[in-house]
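Q: What does the predicted 3D structure of Guanylate cyclase domain-containing protein look like?
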Amino acid sequence: MTTITLALVYIKYILNSTLSYNITLYQHEFSRIVMWLFATPLMLKLYCDINSIKLRDINIQCHIIPVAVNIFIYPYRNTTIYFYFTGCSWASLLFFMKTFYEKRNLMFTNIFLIIWGTFMVLTIIDIFHLTDVYTVNLYYSFADMISKLTTCIMIDECIEKEIIQFNNIDLQSVQFISYMITHLNKYKTEIIVITPKCTALVDSTRKGFLLKIPEDKTILEQELLNKILPFGFDKEFIASASESASASASASATTKQFNMICVLFTDIVNYTELAQKYDDAIIFKLLNSVYISFDKIIKKYSHLQKIETIGDAYMVVGDIFRNTINHNFVINEILLFAIDIIKEVKTIKTPDNIPLCIRVGINIGSVSIGILGNELPRLCVVGHAVNMASRLQSTAEIDTIQISSDVYEQLENIAIDKKYEFVIKENVFLKNMGSVTTYNISPIIVHRYNK
């Protein structure tokens, strides 16, 4: 908007100068000075906007005052009064240039210094009559045109790139911004001795990141809703909610069926005892540390999706977003993920300095996916494969991975990244399922075996 306003101001000046046939040289010069009074603040605003600073940060008043004074004293050209006030106003202008020069590390500062320096030289030539008045005005016209075009084109292109980037912000971008701001704040508070220049850089960088978060968060909210309720379930939920959210409406909710889906469950060993021993704040902090670590790890595996956390239980499936059957890749990834989280949880300790332990259960089979209920909607994955994965987890040894025979059979037909040594367990009783044969993996043995 500022660029357009600047262009309109300059175009009006050009039209007044070219279409007025009887305009005198005096009127032309006065028109140019008035144009400067309106155009230069707009140019400086473009500069400040692109560098995320305020007009007062560059002491714009020290520039506006000389220009305004020049308008009032113009009728007294070539008199003592004119030279006196011009000299006084230049003191203010030089202070403005000094402020500008101190910000030469910011974008476009050198270009603006050249533009303002050029006009100061032309003003000196004009005041001391170093050339004839027509030549000076020709120089002024060229300088005006070049400075306005340069400012509009270069800064507008930079702003356009910022707008494109701004409009392409997604949830992961916001997470990245949040991560960077957190670490900038941490750096600023943890460093005992921090220089003023470094402080200014940290503050400027933090402000730049904050400005990249859009004020209108509708698109981000829609993306978040799509993540929570994929497969068009978000639209279905909104439609059902707008009707009446009646029992009949919820009963008719659609589901999607998938075959050959891997399901992983894990929970913390002795979680009940921990919850009784420590207060809620400590338990919450422990769980948060565990889930943040797991969330970070799962991002390494493109075929896996976190479904939910219930208390100390963490559920993962793969791959519900597939285009074709890809369980070969999923099984490989889900085993690697299980090994990673068992190792990672050892870095998280209780207040008594005791590392946490987990159990992991993995199964493969058919599942149904949909929304259950109409209050606080969330994506649910249900089915026999889910129940069995949960049972495998609950009967696994501490810090081991227990997989079903279905997963084991698939392993014989796929290429995997690691060599696994399985411990066969027969007659493992799973609640409501009877006795089954399972296969167990210890990450410690896997690590030793793959050295």
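A (community wiki): The structure tokens above were generated from the sequence. The first helix runs from residue 2 to 19. The beta strands are 255-268, 305-310, 313-318, 358-371, 379-382, 401-403, 423-430, 434-441.
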